[in-house]
Amino acid sequence: MVFLSIWLVSILHLLKTFVDIHNIPLQDALLQIGIHIVFHISAVLLAYADKLMHSYDSDSGH
């Protein structure tokens, strides 16, 4: 839940950046996009790790 909250804040900041893109320096916009991409990659990796852990738990529960 904490990760989801951080990810949602990232989305809101990125949306705010795109709404006011003409007044935001290019480096700041690129940095925010990069951070958001890292959050996406982390979310996918965490979901994959969770899937692996649940499949391991169900296999060992015979």
Give the helix/strand layout.
Layout: H1 2-19, H2 26-60
List keywords for this structure.
62 residues, mainly alpha, 2 helices, 85% helix, elongated
Reported for the largest beta sheet, the result is: none
Structural class computed from helices and strand pairing: mainly alpha
User: In angstroms, what separates the terminal alpha carbons?
Assistant: 30 Å
Total beta-strand segments: 0
Beta-sheet strand percentage?
A: under 5%
Low-confidence stretches: none
Question: Describe it for me?
Answer:
With 62 residues, this protein is mainly α. The protein has a domain at 25-57. The chain has 2 helices and no strands. Helix 1 (2-19) packs antiparallel against helix 2 (26-60).
Task: Give a brief description.
With 62 residues, this protein is mostly helical.
